[in-house]
Amino acid sequence: FAVGFAVKDTIENYIASIMLSLRQPFRPRDFVSIDSHEGVVIRLTSRATILMTTDGNHLRIPNAVVFKAIILNYTTNPERRFDFTLGIGVNDDPVAATEAGVEAIASLPFILDSPPPGSFVEMMGDSNIVIRFMGWINQKETDFLKARSYAMQKAREVLAEQGFSLPVPSYNLRFDDGVLPFQTLKSKPETEADKKQPGPREHVISVEDVEDVEHVEDIEEMDVSPEQHLQEKVEDERQATQEEDLLDEDSPKE
Predict the structure, then answer these.
(1) What is the pTM of this model?
(2) What domains are there in the chain, each with its CATH number?
(3) Which of 49, 168, 201, 229 has its CA 20 to 30 A from that of 17?
């Protein structure tokens, strides 16, 4: 039975490799997600599709799995949208905040004008109003993670400068009598030595502290170019290992 199952898997993977080579759902060096596994395509063999993950590891996915899987190809369309959320105070104006954040994102040189950046109120909680911001980039010219990071910093900076509060989630804890997870110690009379001990020092945020907060670096100095380290590793792997590759860059792509 074990031999039968092994032969069955081998035949399934081989047939799937033929179908994938005809369909060509991805090319070598494409960044894809196959059943939630992300990586850059190295090659397609008769048994498996080989990816290099973002942390540099080899990932072999059986072709039978790839053929039936949901495949997301990030490289096919160079235009890609990122999004992130920021929270403002419940007493702040969400319409003004969305407008300010969108203008801040649109001011970044790597953000596409079409489709334009956008935003919407995602949730109104007890301690904050959550706003989701979105922007589009060209992945051939701009790194996705860098662009998202810079846009997030820029939007947050502009909202803070315009007086919007950026609260963190707060929680109220209530302890009923008799259910405390610790034992209350009886207080003892304060001695002279205790009075001389310095208490915790309070830190008051001054205007000078706020002015010293670092701003997003100058737009002209932003390095948002795509990272090539992973692509270089994939290319080295393709050159070093002369293994069969059923992917053909000249064939029609699905």
Answers:
(1) 0.74
(2) 2-76+230-240 (2.30.30.60), 79-168+217-221 (3.30.70.100)
(3) 229
